[in-house]
Amino acid sequence: MPADTLRNQTRNPGMPLDTAMFEGHRINRLATERRAASLVSRRGVKKLHQAAWLVNAIRCIDLTTLAGDDTKGRVRRLCAKARQPLAPRIADALGLNPTVGAVCVYPTMTRHAVHALEGSGIPVASVATGFPAGLMPLRLRLEEIRYAVDEGAAEIDIVITREHALRGDWSALHDEIAAMRDACGEAHMKAILATGDLQTFGNVYAASMVAMQAGADFIKTSTGKEGVNATLPVSLVMVRALRDYLDATGHRVGFKPAGGMKTAKDALNWQFLMREEMGRDWLSPDLFRLGASSMLADIERQLDHFATGRYAAAHRHAIA
């Protein structure tokens, strides 16, 4: 599947706010944590099967740089890695060369990424709306979305106002996200919930449902800047929300964990979650993304071991 197929998917049209879909929904924290732990303890893959899962993880990575010292040169290097995530010798040994799901940058870096990826089919995602805190006037956040889209972003990662969720002001949250979705136009929107700031699983479930009702094409765990980012238990809560939304509306919404994931094992664990909870359809980049760049180096190292039988030193693999 080409990396740009997200733009060809039927979008989530959203709906008016319906608090009955989440108010009163009780979540058993201990049961959630046990279920998440079972995904790691019960399932394992080896050799060829592991290599296949890791190649699929590459296809779902949003290769990202969101640093204060980002430059055109850094973005161009990241895009070169996006075009060829695996060293040529590894790609040759495997007989394939996957590309990543997207490249994610700040709005002012978007045009550099678009130019560097021209002809590759890899979309550019841009964070917006005052990332990572989102504490800007709404009109400025909407203008930032429009700027990123004008610069060529095909996907926009927005951040919500956490205060709305913490106060239970679901109408304000719905209206805000719906306005952001409208500002995105044809660009697909990923709603970052910053789950590490939301305090309870109940808030996470409710915020997930409100974001989908407001038209989010993806729900995303974190900015990567919070004290706690993606965890398997909070991801399970969000995935159950998108499954409930699918059952209620018939509309499919994607999922993106982000932040704190660094290893090939992490890439496997989150894919196991999607496979067991949502099925094989959610193992493709149009419905699942991994918001992590550092894990690519470990994935490449593991695939090198599969191809050669030896572990290479870390310096043998280009840093994403």
Q: How would you describe this structure to a colleague?
A:
By secondary structure, the chain is an alpha/beta fold. The chain has a single domain (16-307), classed as TIM Barrel. The protein is 46% helix and 8% strand. The chain contains 12 helices and 7 strands. It has a 7-stranded parallel β-sheet with strand order 1-2-3-4-5-6-7, covered by helices on one side. Helix 6 (138-150) links the parallel strand 3 (124-127) and strand 4 (155-159). Helix 6 packs parallel to helix 8 (170-184). 49% of the residues are buried.
- In whole angstroms, the N-to-C terminal distance is 22 Å
Write the CATH fold name: TIM Barrel
Mean pLDDT: 94
What's the CATH first level?
Answer: Alpha Beta
Please, what is the CATH homologous superfamily? Answer: Aldolase class I
Strand content: 5-15%
| β-strand number | 7
CATH architectural grouping: Alpha-Beta Barrel
Share of helix, binned: 40-55%
Shape: globular
Number of helices: 12
- Across the major sheet, the strand order is 1-2-3-4-5-6-7
Cα-based radius of gyration, to the nearest Å: 19 Å
Summarize the entry for a quick read.
The chain contains 12 helices and 7 strands. With 320 residues, the protein is of the alpha/beta class.
